[in-house]
Design a protein that fits this description.
By secondary structure, the chain is α/β, with parallel strands linked by helices. It has a single domain, classed as 3-Layer(aba) Sandwich (Rossmann fold), CATH 3.40.50.1820. It is built from 11 helices and 8 strands. It has an 8-stranded mixed sheet, sandwiched between helices. Bound molecules: D-malate. D-malate binds near residues 94, 217 and 243.
Amino acid sequence: MRRVEMGDGQLAVVDEGVGPPLLFVHGFPLNHSMWNGQRDRLSSRYRLLIPDLRGFGGSSAVEGIASMEGFADDLARMLDALGVTEPVTFVGLSMGGYIAWQFWRRHADRLGRLVLCDTRALPDSEEVARGRIMTAERVLVQGAGIIADPMLERLFAPGTRTDAAACVEATRQVIMSTSPLSIAAALRGMAQRVDATAWLPAIDVPTLVVCGEHDAISPPAEMRSIAAAMPRATYVQMEGVGHMAPLEAPSVFNERLERWLENSSDLDR
Ligand code: MLT
């Protein structure tokens, strides 16, 4: 991985392949490795930029509150540092999608197309936000282990947990290796994220909305309504998988993504 100097820390980023840039942004509390299933297939035709967000994987530590706005600004600065001037296709999963809304709002000129995987436009309810703050405090005292099992149960479809145990175990290892400070900071940042639903009709870049059939965090009905509210969105449901659709069924996801990339164009923006 390359290390990009940000002035106040470093971001670790996979930068491979040649072609139009695809920026892959991972979910919580993961790192770039959740996109490993996309790398072989896509790097022959696209430049793949797959960072570890600040606080995650090999990137610099974070503490306090990691806001979605801050993550979006980091990504824009990282693109500057890597000399990427062409608008990117932003592929975000879940928390990566929360960051995508802010990337659109704050760096619209850098956004060519959007791929929203298993994410929400709605903010947390007060109850969910309170729960996140309490979990943040517990993680700081008891460690990342306390969120691993409950998270894995919500991230993967029941069939994936039985049929692809190695993939689930690898995700557990990623969660366990994440700093409690970063987990707490991202939980606080997600708890205070703003409602993006009113922005949806104005986001006029070609958009692919992907949702796993059994997604328990951002269910199909909710993601279908995100797509319906966006002027240029296509909705795709992936059967048999959950919240981690691109990781659970990489070949299906890659095939859908490639087909859409070929058919959509940012030239007519
Ligand atoms: C994620 O996958 O990024 C998280 O489940 C998002 C969330 O907790 O809202």
